[in-house]
Design a protein that fits this description.
The structure holds 2 protein chains of 2 kinds. Chain A is mostly helical. In chain A, about 75% of the residues lie in helices and about 5% in strands. Chain B has one domain. The chains are: A mainly alpha, B mainly alpha.
């Protein structure tokens, strides 16, 4: 039997394949398998309905955040339109399901593909622009998509919204939090697996090369424009898939949620989680969702306290303030995000007691 | 024809305000290459500060105005000192996201203190500002905006051309490293430009507030409308910002008047994408953009 691998006390890698492995130790592999088992077999049965709802939202946001991290963290293109792409996915799913009666297992990937197409169109400016000009172009994309969603009434029914029919998978109807938990987290696991493998193969290396120095990348024979468009496509595919699941989960789709602040929230997830780290996107999604929910809880608590109610102060804006503060503090004090904090914690355990 | 002229005048006056709001934005970009997503909140802050000083504290208008401008200047200075200075030399995304975070913080704070309702400023503009040109009546607010805008353009022009600080700012904008090595106090230049930008923003906020009333959400929307304006005008041209503001304002008014009112708000962004694809440095910006 093969001996279990533990953390080596130095760099003993002898082949490039060693650098590419997903789990450098068997301990990590066993732990993550145990974690996945606990996630799927224990969590949905022990958590109350509200907690399960929050967990599901984390799962949906995590899928979209992974996509954004491929674009921002790996390819180095800042997109302020991710919330709109999420909306395109949600609307594509709603229109396919409600108007054209397409079944659920077809709708979700189809919505992803439609969004990928839209994302690629809005990625075309990246052929000529980079840095802040590209950021502004994606900002414009956000507003244009929002406008189309509201005003293309023949398809999106405008502000009225669309009610999505209940999803069914292999004859089983999906309703309630628990079935959706399985759908969301199976998708997340699949998309996570794809993302991790995109990043460590030639596509990911091309993205990283473009991020680090696009002219050098061009010189090394990477068709920069094609890869940038590909990155936009992949990232929007993730957003669209997440949006489609969101549409089924939320039952009704309206235009309001897909505004600029949703895009900002996604960027915040990616930054707080850690740019250029797939696991970081998940940490970021957890952080932002938990922050949002706990702030909602806190403001409700404050609103019901005697002296606040009497003074007539509206505590709701406190959420926005705390959200901004979290972003600012992370950027000032740990710009590499939660993934970096987690790495520091791990390595300090590993090196203990000789910490240097 | 009357309709056409009325639209044109409306567009020009709204556009002038866009240009005025964009001035502070360009100011920051020109010296420190920071895209300020919190600009709309700075506008709102100036307007609310003025409102409080003028109505709650009952100060004379002139005193309130000067105090507001001082307050905005100090605030801009502090923002630079505590939030942006640690990020000098960091990647673009952190700088952009920091201003986005700042925008959320300021918006939350403003809503917490002043609430989300529409507030109106007292009417204090002298009546003789009400000008009738032919068939078109120009409201006092627009007249004020026009005067203030021209005043600031001239002041900025003189400042950048003749004063030592202005020349330092231009040198920093041109080449930060060369400016450093020639003994320009770059950090002071950044702090000063944030102060001045916040001051200009506060003033534009007051004028916008007189015209439309003060509301945090409306003013932060104006802060986003600044992007098409500055891109069209060129990111580092102050007079370009004013001209582009006029163009965007007129186009908005015509789309609103002739095509459809709902298209009005999205037209600037469609123009923005077009400009970015055709002429990313804008009408008057430095032709320095790097093609990939």
């Amino acid at each position: 039997m093969k001996r279990l691998h533990f953390h080596p006390c130095g760099n003993y890698k002898t082949a490039y394949e060693d650098e590419l492995t997903l789990f450098s130790t068997d301990f990590g592999r066993v732990c993550s398998l145990a974690g996945i088992a606990a996630l799927f077999l224990v969590l949905p049965f022990v958590s109350p309905s509200y907690l399960l709802y929050v967990i599901n939202m984390i799962g949906i946001y995590a899928i979209a955040a992974i996509g954004l991290n491929i674009l921002v963290g790996y390819t180095g293109m800042i997109s302020l339109g991710h919330g709109a792409f999420f909306g395109v996915g949600a609307y594509a799913a709603a229109v396919l399901a409600a108007t054209l009666n397409v079944p659920f297992p077809v709708v979700v990937p189809a919505a992803g593909l439609i969004t990928a197409g839209v994302g690629m169109i809005f990625g075309i400016p990246s052929g000529r622009l980079k840095g802040l000009y590209l950021t502004i172009a994606t900002l414009a994309g956000q507003f244009i998509i929002e406008y189309v969603l509201v005003h293309w009434t023949e398809v999106t029914r405008g502000t009225e919204g669309i009610t999505v029919p209940a999803a069914s998978l292999f004859g089983l109807s999906l309703q309630g939090d628990r079935p959706f938990f399985y759908v969301i987290f199976l998708c997340l696991a699949g998309m996570l697996w794809i993302a991790v493998n995109i990043v460590r193969t030639r596509y990911g290396r091309a993205f990283i090369a473009i991020r680090d120095n696009d002219r050098a990348a061009e010189g090394m024979g990477i068709p920069v424009f094609r890869y940038k468009i590909l990155s936009f496509g992949i990232s929007s595919f993730y957003a669209g898939l997440a949006g489609a699941i969101w549409a089924y989960y939320m039952v009704s789709v309206t235009t309001e949620p897909f505004n600029l602040s949703l895009s900002v929230e996604y960027i915040a997830m990616v930054i707080i989680g850690g740019l250029g780290s797939i696991a970081g996107s998940i940490y970021g999604a957890v952080f932002i969702t938990v922050l949002n929910e706990s702030l909602r809880w806190l403001t409700d608590l404050l609103m019901n306290m005697g002296f606040v109610t009497q003074s007539g102060l509206n505590m709701a804006p406190l959420r926005e303030f705390a959200f901004g503060l979290a972003i600012v503090l992370f950027i000032l004090f740990e710009p590499r995000g939660l993934a970096e904090i987690w790495r520091i914690i791990r390595s300090s355990f590993r090196l203990w007691p000789f910490s240097y | 024809m009357d309709f056409f002229i009325q639209l044109l005048v409306n567009g020009l006056s709204v556009g002038f305000l866009y240009g005025l709001s964009a001035m502070g934005f360009v100011m920051i970009f020109k010296s420190s290459s920071v895209l300020n997503f919190a600009h709309g909140e700075l506008l709102a802050l100036g307007a609310f500060l003025f409102l409080t000083l003028a109505t709650v504290a009952q100060l004379p208008i002139a005193v309130a105005f000067l105090l507001t401008l001082t307050g905005c200047f100090v605030l801009g200075f502090l923002i630079e000192r505590f939030f942006l200075r640690p990020l000098i030399g960091e990647p673009l995304i952190y700088v952009i996201m920091l201003t986005v975070g700042l925008a959320a913080m300021l918006r939350g704070l403003l809503l917490l203190v002043w609430g989300g309702n529409l507030r109106t400023l007292p009417d204090f503009l002298p009546a003789w500002f009400d000008v009738q040109v032919g068939l078109v009546r120009i409201q006092p607010v627009y007249m004020t905006a026009f005067i203030v805008g021209i005043l600031f353009l001239v002041l900025f022009g003189l400042f950048f051309k003749y004063s030592a600080q202005g020349i330092y700012m231009r040198s920093v904008a041109d080449n930060q490293r060369a400016a450093l090595s020639l003994g320009v106090h770059v950090r002071r230049v950044f702090a000063l430009s944030w102060g001045i930008a916040a001051l200009v923003a506060g003033m534009s906020g007051i004028i916008l507030g007189i015209m439309n009333g003060i509301n945090v959400h409306d003013l932060s929307a104006v802060g986003l409308k600044v992007f098409p304006v500055v891109i069209l005008g060129g990111l580092n041209s102050i007079s370009g910002a004013v001209i582009a503001g006029l163009i965007i304002g007129v186009l908005e008014a015509f789309t609103g008047g002739y095509l459809s009112p709902s298209l009005r708000d999205v037209v600037p962004y469609i123009i923005l994408v077009f400009i970015l694809l055709v002429r990313p440095y804008g009408l008057f910006g430095l032709v320095e953009i790097e093609r990939v």
